[in-house]
TrEMBL record:
It comes from the Eukaryota. Residues 79-242 form the Glycerol-3-phosphate dehydrogenase NAD-dependent N-terminal domain. PANTHER family: GLYCEROL-3-PHOSPHATE DEHYDROGENASE (PTHR11728), GLYCEROL-3-PHOSPHATE DEHYDROGENASE [NAD(+)] 2, CHLOROPLASTIC (PTHR11728:SF1). Residues 266-404 form the Glycerol-3-phosphate dehydrogenase NAD-dependent C-terminal domain. It comes from Skeletonema marinoi. Belongs to the NAD-dependent glycerol-3-phosphate dehydrogenase family. This is Glycerol-3-phosphate dehydrogenase [NAD(+)]. It is an enzyme of class 1 (oxidoreductase).
Amino acid sequence: MFGKIMTSRPAMPNIPTIIALSFGAGIFAATHLLRLRDRERLRKACSRTQKHLRKGQRAALGVDLTSYIPIWKGTSRQKVVVLGAGAFGTAMAYAAAQGGNDVVIYMRDKNQCHTINTEHRNPRYLSEFSLLMEGGSSEIRGICTLEDLKVELETPGVVIVHALPCQLTPPWFREHKDIIPHDALICVTAKGLYLPTQQLMGHAILDALDRAEQPLAFLSGPSFAEEIMKGNPTTLVVASDDLFQAVRIQRMMSNFKTIRVFTSDDPVGVQLGGALKNPLAVGAGMVAGMGFGTNTLSAVVVRASHELRQLAAAMGGNPRTIDGLAGIGDLMLTCFSSQSRNQRCGQRLMKGETVEDIQKEYTVEGIPTADVAIIYGDMCGLELPIFRCVHALIHKKITPDEAVMSLMGRRSQYETKHSPKNSRKISFS
């Protein structure tokens, strides 16, 4: 006879053990979440209560709580070559040097270059500001010969910050394209359009270099050079088709104290916002020159931003870009401040001065840009009444009274149009 076959019954789960493990895991998770909450509360308390204290005062309290506030800082030191030692070129060099980068400014004036290298200030622009960095972590050097420029541009990974006037930019790049490395990132800060070919600045630069793959980025936003040098908190936006190139400029220019840079993947919108606000700022100056007040100026700025949004969308940009720093931000800066050359130009035109006399004193990008804006509007089939009135006033095709009647006498319409699905239905039954 065969023996009995032994069969083993599966072990029953230990219910109390499972409950205990689950309870322990829950306690651990809850404790971890409470620690994260307390850490966030501490961080907020630090920023509220101690950010205004000096280091010695914090130490007197027994602990420097601000050391627990995480602040991200870029760590890569880059070679930066700034083309142009005007006011904005100087401010861009100063901002880049604050991030610990190796910064060089190229100019043609030998005396200006010598003063920058010996006295650490720009004798022609913003001369009251020192170009020395606190702590001596980096300094700004000046060069004034093409041989020196060529040597600086041969540095691997060099970033070129372009700060030349718009109408001089493509000819300069065309003349010196042989010394521009094919892989050098060109950061364009000029806010304007190229009049001879009616192009965006990026397209004009690529045509001048005869290259399609040159890395480009476009830095824009509300930024007066003098206020950057004063250390006033300033926010900018940088756009590129290759977002990682925009991030390079973001890391290079942000110092997390006075300058903060946002990134964008809409170079068309950023370029149009920075360029087309110039003739609108001329229009804002005209409003002031006619003797009108804040009511009129606010109306012009708001409706002008609407036209700017329309044109950006028709040209292939993102209209939401115009709602940001490169659009509304820059437009408000130039329209409401007397520091704006475009705004001052509009005032002077209304007082009877000519465009030719004004442009002998300083560059006004809004004058040539107004011509191109009208061409763009015609190409896209857009009305753009404010752009057209500003253009006509610049060229004295209409009088100020005719401009006012042209804008105020337009047919009545909705301010904004909503889609039917979002409209509120009203029933009278």
